[in-house]
Amino acid sequence: MSKNRVVWLVLIALLALTVALPVAANSSALKKVRVYDYSYSPRTTYAVLGDTIGWKNFGPTVHTVTSSDGLFDSSIMSLNELYSWTPTAAGTYNYYCTLHAGQTGRIIVSSAGQ
What we know:
The protein has about 110 residues and is an alpha/beta fold. It has one helix at about 5-20, and strands at about 30-35, 40, 45-50, 50-55, 65, 80-85, 90-95, 105-110.
């Protein structure tokens, strides 16, 4: 068997093993929330433990992302600023903008596999 053919067979075997490996059950994701026009979009974000929630201000008005239970607070976010938070427990987390009454959102976090 030629050397090139052996190399190709090894590469094909490695590729087959890579494709066959299961994806990790606890792989995390970034859940994106847009902040603009005095609202959060989506208003409800669904996540599993290990996911990170990321907010970005897309509008010219400043906003905050502040949890109702004091777990997180972005402070003032200007245009194009980012803020992220990673929940450490399953549950529902309500948040709001401290500058604009009525601008609210929530995160619903489940344990992996639910």
